[in-house]
Design brief:
Keywords: Membrane, Transmembrane, Transmembrane helix. Pfam families: WxLIP_HBD, WxLIP_PGBD. Residues 35-151 form the WxL Interacting Protein peptidoglycan binding domain. The protein is α+β, with helices and mostly antiparallel strands and 341 residues long. The protein has helices spanning 2-20, 110-113, 295-308, 314-340, and strands at residues 36-40, 53-56, 62-70, 77-85, 87-88, 94-95, 118-122, 127-135, 144-153, 157-163, 166-172, 175-183, 194-201, 210-216, 222-233, 239-250, 254-260, 270-280, 283-293. It has two domains: 36-183, Immunoglobulin-like; 194-308, Immunoglobulin-like. It has four helices and 19 strands. A hairpin with a 2-residue loop joins strand 18 and strand 19. The longest helix has 27 residues, at 314-340. The radius of gyration is 29 Å and the shape is globular.
Length: 341
């Protein structure tokens, strides 16, 4: 009986090993930092101890934004501190990077209010402070202004990589950003105003997709945005594709291109309607926009469906199943034999 239990445990271990061959994890990647930044928060900071500026400002005043920059390395560094506007990336996240994607609905922007970029040289293990000035309009502004102090290392590090007698030079630049949120009236509540600007069919060489350009016309950021997209035939109303995306966010007075696939059904050339249902908290919006698919576009889509259909791994699973059944029979036979011996 003891030997029978041993064979069963051995069999179970082998089966788990066979199944485990189909689940592989991806290695994680670590990033390094060659300088650090720390905001020196002023007295009008709304959240003490935060790692970013969240300030109540006075109309007509000048706000100082002081940032401490430290070079912990043994190499001289040249860094550039640049004011940037908060925008919305196409992934549906608020981005604090250099960009020209500010929406035209903005009353003013962080870069229009703030002094120009500053370049600083840091000796090894040296720390310096940099101050940029933000001029608040005399009449103030509605809602909030979002931006950031984008700090980039202008001294690239080089690493050499040689493969097949060919040498590649990789230039890596490091950057950090400290977000800035400015408000004149912290108690002001604004109703989020979203608009669908346009719907386009992307002219990709292989698989056509849709792009819905969404605009936030409100001077306030918001999150927890969920977008449910449906593609319908205009003539019949038949739904041919659906897509749901959630956990999105938008910066104040910004826009982003929301990508939408055309689903997994074969399509015919003709007229279609994109239907969008958006929710964020207790707010919801519904948009519809017509678009047209050409013969070439649906041909590309339909061909891509055939290429994307994966070959079913029946052979591998049959091998695993057959081996497992054989081992089970063998373990049972050995156990029976041991029991009668």
């Amino acid at each position: 009986m003891i030997r029978h239990q041993y064979y069963c445990r051995y069999l179970l271990t082998l089966v788990l090993c066979l199944v485990g061959l189909n689940f592989w994890g991806l290695p994680s990647q670590a990033t390094s930092k060659n300088f650090s930044t720390q905001p020196q928060l002023p007295k009008n900071q709304l959240i003490p101890g935060a790692s970013y500026y969240n300030l109540k400002v006075i109309p007509g005043s000048e706000q100082s934004l002081t940032l401490s920059i430290t070079n912990p390395s043994d190499q001289t560094k040249t860094v550039k501190v640049t004011p940037v506007n908060a925008t919305t990336a196409d992934s549906g996240t608020i981005a604090y990077v250099p960009s020209n994607r500010q929406d035209e609905s903005a009353e003013t922007t962080f870069t229009k209010m703030t002094s120009v970029a500053v370049t600083v040289q840091l000796a090894p293990r040296q720390q310096k402070t940099v101050t940029l000035k933000t001029k608040i309009p005399a009449n103030g502004f509605q809602g909030e202004i979002r931006g950031g102090l984008f700090v980039a290392d202008l001294t690239p590090s080089q690493s050499n990589q040689q493969s097949n007698s060919t040498q590649f030079h990789l230039n890596n630049r490091f950057a950090e950003v400290t977000p800035v949120i400015l408000r004149c009236n912290i108690d002001q509540k604004l109703r989020t105003n979203l608009k669908l600007a346009q719907v386009t069919v992307n002219p990709q060489p292989t698989v056509p997709t849709l792009t819905a350009k969404l605009r936030n016309l409100t001077p306030a950021a918001f999150g927890q945005l969920k977008i449910q997209a449906k593609v319908a035939e205009k003539a019949t109303g038949k739904i041919v594709a659906t897509q749901t995306t959630d956990q999105l966010a938008m910066a104040p007075n910004s826009w982003f291109n929301h990508p939408i696939t055309l689903g997994k059904q074969t399509l015919a050339a003709g007229h279609y309607i994109l239907k969008l249902d958006l929710t964020s908290g207790k707010r919801d919006w519904h948009f519809e926009a017509p678009f047209q698919l050409s013969k070439q576009q649906v041909k590309q889509h339909n061909i891509s469906l055939k290429k994307a259909t994966p070959a079913r791994p029946w052979g591998r699973w049959l091998l695993i199943s057959g081996t497992t059944v054989s081992l089970l029979i063998g373990a049972y036979w050995l156990g029976r034999r041991q029991a009668h011996s």
